[in-house]
Amino acid sequence: MPAIHTAVKDSEIYAPIVDYSEAYPQVIPGALGEANYQELKSGKITIKGKEVPTAGLSSYAKAREVAEILKMWIKKGDFLLTEPVAPLPGPESGLTFKNMRMREVK
Prior knowledge:
This protein is an alpha+beta fold. It is built from two helices and four strands. Helices cover 21% and strands 15% of the residues. A hairpin with a 2-residue loop joins strand 3 (44-47) and strand 4 (50-53).
């Protein structure tokens, strides 16, 4: 399948609007609404009739810059794609992880 078939516009990608100051730390389910990436990138959205500023958690411009540098390194042969340096640890490693608390989906 050509990559063009996987292309999606920012206006087609939706994300939930979550109150990270109260609902998230108290594990209160639900969202205040949703907005698409085009709206989020505009710098402001409206929630319950109030205009709220938005900002990205990462820089799209910086990601493009880094991608271009990496592309240049690969083309010049300065960055070689190789085998993994080390495998990911398996059950035999003895590493344990904190279990996530399950909550009922309503």
